Amino acid sequence: MFESFDAVLLARIQFAFTVSFHIIFPAFSIGLASYLAVLNGLYLWKKDDVYLQLFDFWKTIFAVAFGMGVVSGIVMSYQFGTNWAVFSDKAGPVIGPLMGYEVLTAFFLEAGFLGVMLFGLKRVGPGLHFFATCMVALGTLISATWILAVNSWMQTPAGFGFNDKGQFIPLDWWAVIFNPSFPYRLVHMVLAAYLTTALVVGACGAWHLLKGTAPRRAGKMFSMAMGMVALVAPIQIIAGDAHGLNTLEHQPAKVMGMEGHFQSHAEGAPLILFGIPNQDEQRMDYAVEIPKLSSLILKHDLNAPLAGLDTIPRELQPPVAVIFWSFRVMVGLGFAMLGLGLWSLWCRYKGTLLTARPLQRVAVTMGPAGFIAVLAGWITTEVGRQPFTVYGHLLTAQSHSPLGAPAVATSLILFIIVYFFVFGAGTFYILRLMGRLPRDPTAEIGGAPLRSTGITPGPASNAHHGGSHAH
């Protein structure tokens, strides 16, 4: 039944499906590991139990997210051998060592200290426990560094040559790793991870503030999260702009598709806000645009000329409709995050951050926004690289394993069923954990600390009933 399908397209869909499930977990765990390190450090510094309570709460969620990220990542690496064997053969001498370094440095570091972070506070002491937490956080950042080095090299390859078998071979490892887009992509992704985590933590805190459960703990996490959003969102917009300028220099066709510029503009290009890309006719239908603003953004000159897709052969153009809209989703959510951060700053200035119900409702709504923005960003990056796997050198159609469409389609269906069941259950469990914030044990009622049932001290007149405490 799948004989009429394109095996390459099916393999691309399968990889896109698995990477979409995978990326949401590292995007969360990278930021959450750093948040746990901050909570641990604040507890040691201020000796305030609320930070330790929040650490205990979020470390369980981190463990589940970390585990699902590891499992989903392993599946992706298998696909290099099953669906993309030619790519693995051609690019393996470059990307293989980089991915091996990720395991040897980052994964071993994370795995070595994860158990100490999760279970070792009372066994190794607070100092070593804090060190272990920092090592886990560092491991997640190192992991992101190596993976983004691989991806960036595929986007802007450098420091390589070819052997007599047509394989990419490294000539300069520094140039391979620190390729032209790597610094921009690393900063953009790490900031995205921090924003994603801040929005989730903020949504969780806002949810419990609205419910009135554990207001001190919920208020602390909400305040920290909104502060992080207010700090990182504007930095991310600046970093994204710099990344876009770098992309324009090294992958101009991608930016042309993101901007919807089918035609070249000799005297200033408009910023197309919305429209319907018509790639067959090479035009933008029903365009809503602002004259010359795209030239101002990309070239810092209203009248700067910008080339369009009419300068790119049709067979080498990326799928414009996909990246045109995914880019707008990412940018739109980025400005929504900026608005949320500024709103929280205003409420903090007025002293109403923990009582501003409209802000808290919006924060709950914005909880998934980081994941959606990350997915939209990755779609823009990866689809915009098409039709290449190694930009400018290796076509996607030349990278596929010699498999028939029925084999790829069958494995794709199985992936969809298993992923939705396994990772859907894991995500549901994480949401259940977030919704069950325990009562703050330091809360007081009537001036006395809360006690367990059966040991609540009674008034002095009932002292003669002391035998009841034996129960």
Question: What's the gist of this structure?
Answer:
It is built from 14 helices and 8 strands.
Descriptive notes:
- With 471 residues, the protein is mainly α.
- The chain is 67% helix and 7% strand.
- The protein has helices spanning 7-46, 49-82, 85-119, 121-124, 126-155, 173-177, 182-211, 215-250, 252-259, 293-299, 320-350, 357-365, 369-385, 405-435; strands at residues 160-162, 168-170, 271-278, 283-290, 388-390, 394-395, 444-445, 448-449.
- The strands form 4 sheets. The chain has a two-stranded antiparallel ribbon.
- A hairpin with a 5-residue loop joins strand 1 (160-162) and strand 2 (168-170).
- Helix 1 packs antiparallel against helix 5, helix 2 (49-82) runs antiparallel to helix 14 and helix 9 (252-259) packs across helix 13 (369-385).
